[in-house]
Amino acid sequence: MSTPALPLPWLEQPLQAALQQTHGHATLIHGAEGVGQYEFALALAQSCLCEARPTGASSPQLACGHCESCHLISARSHPDLIVVLPEVLQSALGWGSAQDEGEGAQEKSGKTRKPSQEIKVEAIRAVVQFAQSTSSRGRAKVVLIHPAERMNTVACNTLLKTLEEPPGVVRFLISASSLDELLPTVRSRCQAWRLPMPEASAATAWLQAQIPGLSDADALVLLAATGGQPLTARDRHALGLDASRWPLVPGEVAQGQSPSMAGWPLPLVVETLQRLCHDLSRVAVGAPPQYFPAPSLPQVPDLERLMAWSKSLRDLRRHAEHPWNPGLKVEALLQQARLVLRQRPAR
Q: Which of 31, 60, 80, 284 has the fewest CB atoms within 10 Å around its CB?
């Protein structure tokens, strides 16, 4: 019986290595945000729970995809797996309310409430309760937390005791893209596993399969625009990022204009301005740009002005949930960028 292909082909080799080399009760999967951490963690969980391998085998093997356990995971209904996500990701990843374990695992204060971006303490209390229960299918229990940096401080502290001394056969798979935002006390209790960036050829082929008609050149532009992260490239394209217009953005921004960003959501505009600022800062210190083609960049302002602009954009991104008027905010951001990038008169 053949093993099913992974949805992200560049994960297969790292997954096989992780199954052989991660043996602790808690694994911290970290790496760039858009390379498939959640998919990797879920595939690792499925392999741990797969019932095709003999009981008592020294290490898990790739999930068969055909046993009852694998079918239950595909149906998002495995009794020995709990997946903890921010509310804003639950529906997109197919878990919805199925992971509401215990009272208040996810707050429900009305249909009009905006889904939370955080993993709250109620969800982690449900994890503690889940870890203390007996395995329903008699093989193991798995807790998957993604992305772990979304846990607030109270949630992190609630997890620590169970993470340090887990009862029974529970295994924790903790996914994070920003280790700096994760408490050191959480990191120290896990075996770290870094997920590498995919090779450009694999990422390009996958991206073209996701976006029909996308040329090789445009796929490479989208990958460069998102730091080589194929899942991020797919998602940004869906939000309006056009590979053919991406090189026009720096010149438009320098003029305080945004035709190539017309219709983009505010968070994508802010992210793009951050990437432009990042590239200009790299050029200012003699490094090549990362996101934009070098010829597309305007004259580089002094580094002090760029650092102040970077801090302003970073502060704004922290308040992304504020009910801004998007049109007015984008206009204000473009005027700020024009002032930062304006050419100084020659002396």
A: 284
